[in-house]
Amino acid sequence: MSESMELLRLFELDSRMSKFQNLFKQLIYVLSEENIEYVIVGTVAYSEYATPRATTNINFMISESDCYKLESVLKEHGVDFIWNAYQQLIIAVKDDSDETKKYPLALSFQSAPKGLAFNHSISKEIFGVADVPVASPEILVALWCLAVSNGNSKSYYDAQMMIKLQLADVDKCVAVIESLHESNANKVLRSILTGNAIYVDTINMDEALIMPSDLFQTHEDIELAKAHRYQAAQERRRKLYEGIQQVK
Q1: Closest Cα to residue 49, out of 193, 165, 171, 223?
Q2: What is the CA radius of gyration of the chain?
Q3: Element containing residue 109 per DSSP (H, E)
Q4: What is the mean pLDDT of the chain?
Q5: Sheet hosting strand 129-134, strand order edge to edge
Q6: Cα of 124 vs its chain's centroid, Å
Q7: pLDDT digits (tens, 9 = 90+) for 49-94
Q8: Residue range 1-135, CATH number
Q9: Long-range CB contacts for residues 218-224, cutoff 8 Å, separation at least 24
Q10: Rounded to an integer, what distance in angstroms lies between the CA atom of residue 153 and that of residue 84?
Q11: What ranges do the domains of the chain cover?
């Protein structure tokens, strides 16, 4: 059985899913009551804009100043949590025997990068809860570019996809990234827009920062860059095929 099918079966048969949804609703209420500002990021946010992806985790982002306030509030409400190695506060949903399983359902909280404003979020309905603030495509791209600059190469393709789908406004992405302090995220954004990094490992983080005016400003420019990358990929495939035929 594939991993995705196993996840689907788990969600259909496991009573933890209803617990997961109820815990989400409870936490949304608590965050509102305690005036803790938050925004949904990660796969759940991505799935609100693009092709939905299976996930067992809902990612919250809150301000650094609210992290310990949240910790105190959770203790008051008797909610168990841990801090992981990435400084994320994790709340795992357990089954009736008080155990987690192979695919733990969890809610995670992480502090927002310095300079990131929450006022660009978009209200969505999640698990029947209305007006849940979800990060805009521009914020997601900025966060992913920041993650890439910190060594998480997988995030590169998420940011690239949001731009390919023309969901993220390039100028707004630049504005959000420029608000992040001490960040190399704009170097990653440039590599995405110019197509200079077919593979993430080729990103040159020592390259000088470029000014926003040097970035592609229109979707037409982005589409043209995509066409060039497609043609280059086709040419590589052709040469590879020719090489295979010569070996035969």
Answers
A1: 165
A2: 21
A3: strand 105-111
A4: 79
A5: 82-83, 89-93, 105-111, 57-62, 38-41, 129-134, 122-126
A6: 16
A7: 887 777 888 999 999 889 889 999 999 988 889 998 888 999 988 7
A8: 3.10.450
A9: 219/166, 222/163, 222/164, 222/166, 222/170, 222/193
A10: 20
A11: 1-135, 137-248
pLDDT higher at 123 or 247: 123
Q: What is the pTM of this model?
A: 0.74
Placement of tokens 């170097």 in the chain = 187
CA distances from 107 to 2, 42, 46, 57, 89 (A): 24, 11, 16, 6, 8
- C-alpha torsion 71→76→79→83, nearest 10: 20
Q: What span, in angstroms and rounded, lies between the C-alpha atoms of 91 and 146?
A: 25
* Contact present, 166 and 222 (Cβ < 8 Å): yes
Three-class SS state of 110: strand
